[in-house]
Design brief:
The chain has 13 helices and 11 strands. By secondary structure, it is α/β, with parallel strands linked by helices. The N terminus is likely disordered.
């Protein structure tokens, strides 16, 4: 079963002329290179693979990638269709005539694919982060959109392409990921309408939800326990806004034989603390660097703070990377958040 996914609204932050130019570029190229941000989440990978499959059905030659040195799809996302489009960064075109990026707010978020982006004849940026820096030659960027997949849906519709169940599965996974399964403030009637159109293709929402949120190795429980045991509560921080934070070390993961990509859910546990607006989790990668995830319930703009520290995101969810130790990182983060 297929469905016409043309949305019933024009995304306000994108000029009509930019949509028209994007459509012309896609139609005018037989080979298109797609990229999403490093350490891809559901919105990044789902948007890219969904769009890639739509292009392939239209007869385009498509290659897709993300610029991590360790090129591994996170386990939680391995159910997504279309992964045969993926190639390691080393096999990505050196200077593509047309390159399209998904969910990357800065050129730096492309990692090993930065040189390809800089050498591309045309670089179309599809994104929904308010912190987007405006890199690239054409911008389909709407900070109001709940997910990058919302813009992908619009572009697919404008191209006149059909969406089948595999494509819809990717776009739905992207949508539910960035709306917190429709729990975040970004969830609007238009978001539910889009979900309805995707569901109409016959996809299985229960299977997607189970893959994204209801599966984990036993070792995750041990790592979660270690992280919770060192959690710090600062109820009086920032005039009573409240802060809770913890860290996940690579030693924690090594003892439980747990890959790095399995610890994303820790932030969703500690952010539940009552009387706290901001939650922070510092996650040590295999090389000793720290990826910092932040969440806010609305009183504090974590996106602005993370952007100031070299990262980015949204007012309610953002992150950045650092090589500094946790105590030093938290001192800098508190200053920016305040």
């Amino acid at each position: 079963m297929t469905s016409d996914l043309r949305s019933d609204r024009v995304l306000p932050a994108v000029a009509e002329g930019d949509w028209e130019r994007a459509v012309a570029l896609v139609r005018g190229h037989d080979e298109i290179a797609l990229a999403c941000h490093v350490t891809p989440d559901g919105d990044a990978l789902g948007s890219m693979l969904g769009f890639g499959q739509a292009l392939r059905q239209a007869g385009k030659r498509v290659v897709a990638s993300f610029g991590d040195r360790t090129f591994v799809v996170p386990r939680l996302l391995r159910f997504l269709p279309g992964q045969d489009l993926l190639v390691p960064p080393g096999e990505f075109p050196v200077a593509p005539d047309l390159m399209i990026t998904f969910d990357a707010s800065t050129r730096a978020r492309l990692g090993l694919l930065i040189p390809a982006a800089e050498a591309a004849g045309e670089l179309v940026v599809v994104d929904h982060h308010a912190s987007n820096t405006g890199f690239g030659s054409l911008h389909l960027v709407d900070p109001v959109a709940a997910a990058t997949s919302v813009l992908v849906e619009e572009l697919i519709g404008r191209l006149g392409l059909a969406v089948d169940k595999p494509i819809a599965t990717c776009l739905y996974a992207a949508l539910v990921t960035d709306t917190g399964s429709f729990r975040y403030a970004s969830t609007t009637p238009a978001v539910h309408a889009m979900a309805g159109r995707l569901l109409a293709t016959g996809l299985n929402p229960d299977t997607i939800a189970r893959e994204l949120w209801d599966r984990s190795p036993f070792g995750y429980l041990r790592v979660l326990g270690a992280a919770l045991s060192r959690a710090v509560l600062e109820p009086e921080w920032a005039g009573g806004a409240g802060l809770v934070w913890t860290c996940v070390t690579r030693r924690d993961r090594a003892l439980a034989a747990l890959p790095y990509d399995e610890v994303e859910g820790v932030i969703d546990v500690i952010r539940k603390v009552d009387g706290v607006d901001v939650a922070v989790v510092l996650k040590e990668d295999d090389a000793g660097g720290w990826n910092v995830s932040t969440r806010s319930k609305g009183a504090v703009d974590v996106g602005r703070a993370c952007a100031a520290l070299g990262g980015g995101g949204h007012p309610g969810a953002a992150g950045f990377f650092t090589t500094e130790p946790p105590d030093q990182t938290m001192a800098r983060l508190r200053e920016m958040l305040s």
